[in-house]
Amino acid sequence: MAEPTNINRYVTGHDENGHAIFSFEGSVPYTKVLEKSGKNALFGVPWKTDSFPSECNGKEDAAVIGGPLHNDEGTLCRVVEFPPNTSSPFHRTCSLDYGILVSGEMHLELDDGHTRKFVQGDVAVQRGTMHAWHNRTNEYARMIFVLVAAKPTVINGKVLEDAMIRDTPLYEDGSY
Fold first, then answer.
1. What SUPFAM superfamilies has UniProt attached to this entry (predicted)?
2. Cis geometry, peptide bond prior to residue 83 (ω within 30 degrees of 0)
3. What distance in Å separates the CA atoms of residue 40 and residue 32, rounded to the nearest whole number?
4. Which alpha helices (H) appear in the chain, and where do they start and end?
5. How far apart are CA 84 and CA 22, in angstroms?
6. What is the pTM of this model?
7. Tally: H helices and E strands in the chain
8. What is the largest CA-CA distance in the chain?
9. CA 24 to each of CA 46, 76, 147, 148: distance values in angstroms, whole numbers, following the listed order
């Protein structure tokens, strides 16, 4: 099965008279991420911000390749292409995450074992929870995640930090 093609992004801004313009456009580069099965998921980051509230001035290109799963200082928009018959490792980000299933079918599993099936258009709102994603079909599934910086989750006085339970590196270069 062929890998999905990169998506395009269209970034707007303003000209010197305050009129809306397209200030940047192009495809979103993908980074290959190793799944537990040994297959590569594809991560693309159309945009990130390094402040909150976000800055809408300037024309800088804020796409990134690789890097942490979320941004402690702002927001991060990520596209994930899940290969057929794969699962992500269990993980938690200290962020408020909105996950929208754009195509395919996915299952979200929480660390207590409860699972929900997602179909196109379904949205997950994750608040610093330990979870894994499963594509149990023979087709790629595409999700878009928007991760927003958040205060840490505290349960019984214990701070729940970022976590990833995996036995393989995250990125092809061997890094996490």
1. RmlC-like cupins
2. no
3. 6
4. none
5. 35
6. 0.86
7. 0, 16
8. 55
9. 11, 18, 22, 23
- What percent of the chain has a predicted confidence (pLDDT) above 70? 85
**Residues whose CB falls within 8 Å of the CB of residue 98, separated by 6 or more in sequence, listed in order:** 123, 124, 125, 145, 146, 147, 148
Structure token pair of residue 81: 């292409």
Mean pLDDT of 66-92: 86
Q: What are phi and psi of 78, to 5 degrees?
A: -130, 140
Could you count the other beta carbons within 10 Å of the beta carbon of residue 59? 10
User: DSSP code of 105?
Assistant: E
CA 176 to chain centre: 15
Could you check whether the bond before residue 46 is cis, i.e. omega within 30 degrees of 0? no
List the domain boundaries for the chain: 31-165
CB 141 within 8 Å of CB 80: no
Query: How many whole angstroms separate alpha carbon 6 and alpha carbon 113?
Result: 33
- Tell me 145's DSSP state: E
